[in-house]
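Repro:
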Amino acid sequence: MTADSPAGRQHAFLERATADLDPPFAALDLDALDANARDLVARAAGKPVRVASKSVRCRDVLRRVLAGPGFAGVLAYSLPEALWLAGGDDPVSTDVVVGYPSVDRAALRALAGDEQAASRITLMVDSADHLDLLDDVVPPGRRPELRVCLDVDASLRSAGGRLHVGVRRSPLHTPDDAVALARLVLARPGVRLTGLMAYEAQIAGVQDAPAGRPLRGLAVRGLQAVSARELAARRAAVVAAVTAVAPLEFVNGGGTGSLERTAAEDAVTEVAAGSGLYSPALFDGYRAFTGRPATFFAVPVTRLPAPGVVTVAGGGWIASGPPGADRLPPPTYPAGLRWFPTEGVGEVQTPLRGPGTEGLRVGDRVWFRHAKAGEVCEHVDALHTVSGGELVGSVPTYRGEGRAFG
């Protein structure tokens, strides 16, 4: 990284813009955010992009993105969150799909007691159990009609189930599975089938060109190609079968890593994306696109324990998912820093080594990127916003607004 490279310039303006702030804090590069948003829209090729809120976790950022062309609606990760985003006279969105089934009885009662919210929020279901729970919480005669969406499993499975590539989400896998539940929804008073979702995590959320691992990249690309062909045919068959029973308002699919593939499917009416807005470290290794890192967190150097070693306060903002080095936040600026394998990143301190330690003194900053997107917002009350090399303000995260959604 040189001073006149894009990364070098970004490091310099982050340092300059936040010089008066005491770390730890998180910063959001609005110029990078806006560029990433434009890229997502271009990759969606005319299909609307529903914003995955779990990858953003900041209402101001959600509003900024939704105000731009090509974006429509929110894919929330919990019903309490959806009620918050869709509620009131100034909602973040009047079209919020809850991406996961909810068994939060208090939230379900709140939804059933609010006709406006019920018209704006779509619940996710994948079995009759979810319909039974709704009826148990608030019987059909005592609630407005609730919108529901079928969650169809998008993983790649072999006959007999010996091979399973993808996440384990829904029991609905075949057209017959989806139609059977669609018929149950149609037969139930108090619910209306409005949509269908199938999220291909094994394509959208797995790097196909991981740095320094060419053989893994080759294997991932091969599996993803097989999975994409299988899913495109099966998703089309599922949608055709379900729409023969009931019309659908939307068919959602995809994620940041699969927008082009998913948007190309005629059966899909909209795509979802969120991580690509912040472009965290886990999204560096894709061949189809290159994002601009937009979120960073800064921590101070507190010790110089040995030549070539610095210790920073905290740093252990570890991402969810399978345990591994790729879930740790990489030290990014200055370039040339790495953590010790025997210590990793710590709760209260993190020692770092490498050529990037040269010139660092007690009180200087080290900038990290989170491995995932929205999870960084669980650690801070605000994102300090920078644009054009200047600090332009700050926006509260969900945490900063006193909200935490499991």
